[in-house]
Task: inverse folding
């Protein structure tokens, strides 16, 4: 039996489009509709049957019993008020943004049945053209319920993620944002900065390590400047901690302090090998 | 016809062991002998037939017409004098170190027929246990001849790398070290520093981007502190440039300067997409 009668996906990109495909494949939604600012994305989403119907206008969302906010996070924040006026009070609303505190705080004021979600299944290959039904399979999905979160809505959302193969982990929105600063946002900032720093003439020599390290610098600037800005305090703190650790390596080099250098590299190697 | 009668590999680890396998597979050497500080590595190298004979003593190298210096770079620098006394004047000597200027300068004083080499085919999975005959296939190999380099030795070394499938690129030793600081040594320093900075409790959430970014933090500290120290001036300069670029992102965040932030991310994304 379908878990939802009508699902409205706001932003049919990689994540929104993939969720549409997964919901339809698992028959969790009778109807899926989608919106996008780009007419091309809507056409593509319809063509691959990620949605049954689509529009650039938000009106198409009316009558949904599940809304998925899947646009870049600043757009999500900007659109929430308009979406609230289109839907019923008992409609469940989720988002899939990479930062949670700003979205969850605002959404909980507007929607009676909101559940913050962050499927750890993005990619530098954005857009509905890269959508696939198994994007969330075997992936972690962090959900960030708060004390006031509607219990039935929470249960339905957990069930949905489980049905499409995700492992659900619950976290406090603030703890999520601190953790993701280190686990995702800092690495992205590092990748962008490394690409900026590397002289162009050397790039023909790039070995696999450099390619792996900068792969995520191909990520969408539209998505990532929103993520960086909405998690700026945690990201700045993680940049400072990282810069301090890199500075320790630099200082050991400058002083020819091979003992400190070896100790720092060995500690990092052990931590990597034991925990990942 | 074999290119060499007896090849002596000093340090049968990942690169030395793989070169032994490749030389024997392509019948480029009649005999291959190897040394290591570790008896276990010698036994393993013999077992997989990367070498015909091996020893912890350097004497086994006597009579070689090609010597491959494949130990960690500081060990290479330390052992060169002793190796010189064991071999004939016309023996060709190559190294495979990740930094070139220090090795090439010293080796050119000691050996009449030295050619500096750096196959870009290492891995965080070190040791002869990971050796494979095709490690150098389709990989770049940078060689760093200087004005005084023996032409016949150079030709033989280029032929050897070509025969085992490498694309040979010639560079000045100093230019090599500047380029590799950005393309390899800085990314390794970043990976070690990121592992050090990341709070242990968050590592269970590590998405693919974090795993890719820190893969090379599993690399051997013994190898990498030598590489860092022997290229410290270029590495420090690349750390400074990278830190400055990361600082620009941080400043834009702090100032809520979304325009500068978007411009920085977009420039990095374009550079990545166009050149890699």
Result:
């Amino acid at each position: 039996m379908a878990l939802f009668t009508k699902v409205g996906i706001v932003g049919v990109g990689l994540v929104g489009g993939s969720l549409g495909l997964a919901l339809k494949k698992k028959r969790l939604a009778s109807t899926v509709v989608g919106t996008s600012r780009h007419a091309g994305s809507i056409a593509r989403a319809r063509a691959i049957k990620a949605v049954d119907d689509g529009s650039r206008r938000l009106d198409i969302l009316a009558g949904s019993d599940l809304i998925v906010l899947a646009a870049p996070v600043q757009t999500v924040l900007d659109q929430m008020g308009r979406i609230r006026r289109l839907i019923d009070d008992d409609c469940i609303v989720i988002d899939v943004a990479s930062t949670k505190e700003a979205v969850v705080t605002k959404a909980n004021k507007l929607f009676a049945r909101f559940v913050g979600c962050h499927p750890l299944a993005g990619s530098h290959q954005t857009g509905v053209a890269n959508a696939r039904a198994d994007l969330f399979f075997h992936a972690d999905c962090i959900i960030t319920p708060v004390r006031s979160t509607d219990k039935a809505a929470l249960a339905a959302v957990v069930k949905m993620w489980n049905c499409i193969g995700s492992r659900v982990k619950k976290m406090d929105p603030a703890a999520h944002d601190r953790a993701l600063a280190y686990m995702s946002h800092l690495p992205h900032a590092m990748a962008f900065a490394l690409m900026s720093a590397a002289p162009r003439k050397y790039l023909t020599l790039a070995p696999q390590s450099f390619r792996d390290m900068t792969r995520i610098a191909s990520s969408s600037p539209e998505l990532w400047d929103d993520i960086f800005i909405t998690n700026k305090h945690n990201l700045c703190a993680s940049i400072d901690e990282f810069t301090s650790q890199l500075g320790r390596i630099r200082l050991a080099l400058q002083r020819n302090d091979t003992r400190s250098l070896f100790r720092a590299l060995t500690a990092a190697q052990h931590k990597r090998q034991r925990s990942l």
Q: What stands out?
A: The radius of gyration of chain A is 21 Å.
